[in-house]
Automatic annotation (TrEMBL):
One MF annotation (Gene Ontology) recorded for this entry: ABC-type phosphonate transporter activity
Name listed for the protein in its UniProt record: Phosphonate ABC transporter, permease protein, putative
Pfam families named among the record's database cross-references: BPD_transp_1
Membrane topology listed for this record: Multi-pass membrane protein
CDD domains: TM_PBP2
């Protein structure tokens, strides 16, 4: 019995590697904590509860009379999100067909280029797009609409080309067997399969864009964010609270619409 082998869940080398990994993780956490504490002014942190309480007391009650000045910026915000989503989804459709491995005309040239555009669009936040476009086009709605569109292209394009690649090949082969042209194969064999998902993706992106368009005004790209920025600069806390309430209500309504539409389609 003394020479019987005892089974272990991990080998000694695996246990050593696991402990080394945990040690490295703890060391990384300690290092990050050191960096954070060196750059933190703790006097402000300790004073944060009192400062938050002071701002809350100054902000309450919200200045409801300011609401009449928010209708137009709120409408602009909805237009930025809606038009940006529309332009982004229109641009994303051909891009997705070029990127999908089963529909691209060239896996060596067209597909890598399309994938690069999708990744580039998704890598840059809409606020950064807005900053660049405000510098080029000047402040206003146009910069916000294009920023939302640029950001939406990558999101919609990626989900759509993945949906195209997952289409049922037997339906496509059935259309090809009728002697259909490549355009007819796309129209009758692939597009009907991805259309419900495409509509759901577009509505979901519109919901996200409503939230993102509310902050684009902070960098001059129009919408209700510009009112928020000016109210913050003036320390008009009751106006800030009203704008936050309006933004929250808008996001809740848009999320409800998005959820109902996607449930009806998917």
């Amino acid at each position: 019995m003394s020479g019987q082998m005892i089974w272990h869940h991990r080998s000694p080398r695996a246990r050593l590697a696991l402990w080394a990994g945990w040690l490295a993780l703890v060391a990384l956490f300690v290092w990050c904590w050191e960096v954070m504490t060196q750059r933190t002014i703790w006097a402000f942190v300790w004073d944060a509860p009192r400062a938050a309480s002071d701002i809350a007391s100054r902000a309450w009650p919200p200045r409801w009379s300011y609401m009449e000045q928010l209708w137009l910026p709120l409408w602009d915000t909805l237009n930025i999100a809606t038009l940006g989503t529309l332009i982004g989804t229109i641009l994303a459709v051909p891009l997705a067909f070029l990127a999908a491995s089963n529909t691209t005309p060239s896996k060596m040239i067209a597909r890598p280029i399309a994938l690069f555009v999708i990744v580039a669009s998704r890598s840059i936040n809409s606020v950064i797009w807005a900053l660049l476009l405000v510098s080029i086009l000047g402040p206003g709605l146009l910069a916000g609409i294009i920023a939302i569109a640029f950001r939406s292209v990558g999101f919609v394009g990626k989900l759509l080309y993945e949906a195209i690649e997952e289409t049922d090949a037997s339906q496509v082969e059935a259309v090809i067997a009728t002697g259909a042209t490549p355009a007819q194969v796309l129209h009758y064999g692939i597009w009907p399969q991805v259309l419900p998902g495409f509509i759901g993706i577009s509505v979901f992106r519109w919901d996200i864009n409503i939230r993102e368009s509310t902050i684009l005004g902070l960098v001059g790209a129009g919408g209700i964010g510009m009112n928020l920025q000016s109210s913050l600069n003036m320390l008009a806390w009751p106006q800030v609270l009203l704008i936050v309430i309006v933004i929250l209500a808008t996001v809740i309504v848009s999320e409800g619409i998005s959820s109902r539409v996607r449930k009806a389609l998917i």
